[in-house]
């Protein structure tokens, strides 16, 4: 049975998944063989070929196939962002404020946090025992290459962290982050997606800072909260 006949015997959703995968390969590797195979399949399906190979056109067609394939797309399954403005090296020295990830479960959140650490050139990242490491495939994928730029220590306990230890937590006793003066060296701790920082970390914290919130939902996603904190730290030290 030839390849064309076998392909056309597949369910429609499987055909569109195959098309989407070829476009993903072309988008990331830019090898002509992928788009040639894709256009051949489009001819088999009686669909127009893709002649405009701009990132937008490829992305639009990719998402069209996912829709027909009934694939529920998550953010980490998006095509990788094309960024031609990366610098050959950082434009500023690192700030000696480190980060502790306390029982964060989501590899996607960890990857996003690592991107933020690299973007703002903060210090080392300390991982608690059950937090996914930079070597985790999903962490690496979400971090978009930043994992290898980060110095990290695995399986760290609160007693091993640089001091002072600053807890980022929603608390009536917390100092608003825009009112807090970060020390020239120390460690910021962020906590679990469900229950926040552990009692062990809070009991050892030298200070607790919070992001002022005004909505009914008195919380933020941990990666988003850290991004706000990282921007505040960078603003304080760099102006």
Order of strands across the biggest sheet?
3-2-1-6-4-7-5
Quote the beta fraction: 5-15%
Global shape: elongated
Q: Given the helix and strand composition, which structural class is it?
A: alpha/beta
Terminus-to-terminus distance: 67 Å
Uncertain residue ranges: none
**What is the count of helical runs?**
8
CATH topology of the largest domain: Alpha/beta knot
CATH class category label of the largest domain = Alpha Beta
The proportion of residues forming helix, as a percent range, comes to 40-55%
Q: Average the pLDDT over all residues and give the rounded result.
A: 92
Biggest β-sheet description: 7 strands, parallel
Rg of Cα set = 23 Å
**Beta-strand segment tally:** 7
Keywords: Methyltransferase, Transferase
GO molecular function, one term: RNA binding
Pfam family, one: SpoU_methylase
Domain tRNA/rRNA methyltransferase SpoU type: 97-230
Architecture overview:
This protein has 239 residues and is an alpha/beta fold. The chain has two domains: 69 residues, no CATH class; 142 residues, 3-Layer(aba) Sandwich (Alpha/beta knot), CATH 3.40.1280. The protein is built from eight helices and seven strands. A seven-stranded parallel sheet has the order 3-2-1-6-4-7-5. Helix 2 runs antiparallel to helix 4.
């Amino acid at each position: 049975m030839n390849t064309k006949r076998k392909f056309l015997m597949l369910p429609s959703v499987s055909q569109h998944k195959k098309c989407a995968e070829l476009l993903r390969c072309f988008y990331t590797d830019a090898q002509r063989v992928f788009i040639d195979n894709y256009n051949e399949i489009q001819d088999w399906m009686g669909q127009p070929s893709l002649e405009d190979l701009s990132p937008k056109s490829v992305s639009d067609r990719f998402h069209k196939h996912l829709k027909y394939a009934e694939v529920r797309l998550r953010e980490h399954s998006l095509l990788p962002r094309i960024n031609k403005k990366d610098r050959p090296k950082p434009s500023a020295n690192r700030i000696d404020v480190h980060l502790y990830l306390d029982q964060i479960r989501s590899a996607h959140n960890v990857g996003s946090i690592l991107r933020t650490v690299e973007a703002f050139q903060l210090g080392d990242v300390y991982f608690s025992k059950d937090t996914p490491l930079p070597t985790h495939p999903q962490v690496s994928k979400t971090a978009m290459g930043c994992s290898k730029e980060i110095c990290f220590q695995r399986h760290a306990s609160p007693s091993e962290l640089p001091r002072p230890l600053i807890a980022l937590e929603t608390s009536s006793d917390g100092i608003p982050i825009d009112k807090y003066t970060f020390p020239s060296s120390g460690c910021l701790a962020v906590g679990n997606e469900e229950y926040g920082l552990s009692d062990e970390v809070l009991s050892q914290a030298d200070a607790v800072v919070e992001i002022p919130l005004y909505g009914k939902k008195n919380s933020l996603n941990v990666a988003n909260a850290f991004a706000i904190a990282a921007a505040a730290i960078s603003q304080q030290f760099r102006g």
